[in-house]
Fold each of these.
Amino acid sequence: KRPAGAPDKSLARPVTKVGVVGAGLMAGQLALLFARRLEVPVVLTDLDQERVDRGVGHVHGEIDKLLGKGRIRPDKANQLKALVTGSVDRQVFADADFVIEAVFEELQLKKTIFADLEKIVAPDAILATNTSSLPITEMAADLQHPERVVGFHFFNPVAVLPLLEIIRAGQTDDATLATAFAVGKSLKKSCVLVKDAPAFVVNRLLTRFLGEVSAAVDEGTPIPEADKALSALGLPMPPFVLLQLVGLPVALHVAETMNRAYPDRFAVSENLAKVVAAGKSSFYVWSADGKPSVDPDVEAL
Ligand code: 3HC
């Protein structure tokens, strides 16, 4: 059943090649999902060959893991590896009908990327963003064809979590939205149509939740105790482990966005800000047998 407000699916345009801007971990997860579910060529780009090679290598490694678990057959693994390629030259997107950006969360950077892409792709090629919280209407504002911009917000781990928030920006037209829904369905995701508002829907709740747990820690509760308390409630993952999965800089970025938009409702955790400023990617270190303990560097901050 179509979500309320989703346009008629007959407006959807075919997608025969996908571009992914960025070759980091999120970009790689997206590339694999698109290749596996749409069975079309997917090309990743990044600033230099080393990043591109690392990104494509990571995706090929994930394909090998699927093969090792018996989730795909050897011929499928080879097909997927051939479908996922990389380049430093964005001209490879010239014949792509759907390009998604998964770069650092910086509005101006994303605007510049979309402006560059517009010079390369066809006028009706979709430009999608996987932003966690940035305003998509503004991201599209200076484009010649802002009506082809749409939010396509996945949740980590992309291969496992079923949710896809499809965000209609102020200028998004029905054909773009219909294509986004058709793609989301082919990706086998549960697509929801959400408004372009700070952090959309799910990240608002997640940020509030993680922010309150972080506040308890800022006020003196030890991290493992906070995690133990929330785990015992039956959550799939303790909050400070979830923060690592989300990425500490991303979590901080969303908290700052929400704090700017709704200062009375969203605070920025002092601990989170300090840990990010120290360049840490986790609150914990893990022993060889997989047991977490709070990183002594974090404790010393
Ligand atoms: N990539 C690919 N597959 C993964 C994975 C990853 N990073 N992590 C786990 N998996 C797979 C495993 O391989 C396993 O697959 P298999 O059945 O084929 O072996 C399956 O997921 C289950 O994994 P596990 O048995 O190891 O672990 P769990 O049962 O504990 O589940 C989890 C792991 C799915 C990550 C679960 O802990 C969970 O749902 N955690 C919460 C995640 C969450 O809330 N994410 C949202 C973050 S917010 C976000 O992303 C938005 C952004 O804008 C900030």
Amino acid sequence: ANITFITTDGTSTTVSGNSGSVMELARDHSIEGILGNCGGVCSCATCHVHVAPEDVRKTGEASEIERDMLELDDNADEYSRLCCQIVVSDAIDGVVLRVAE
Ligand code: FES
């Protein structure tokens, strides 16, 4: 799947992968702002992204645990996801994710 990240300075980077989580993919490609401090267990929110509205049907909605974490983040909105919780697969090909502040 090809996934596009837009970092806070407006830079757009498209990377491709076929397994693991979106957070791991971002880290592998040194996408700025995706730290993944907790290693992907949904407890740090350093992998926060905003999914492009038209792509939400591909990524699905945040889980309850994920929403609880996002509630603590002032920058969260209805399109927020913790990208360690998004699995890389063909189902999300073409999605655009904006790295949160
Ligand atoms: Fe920590 Fe996603 S990497 S919540």
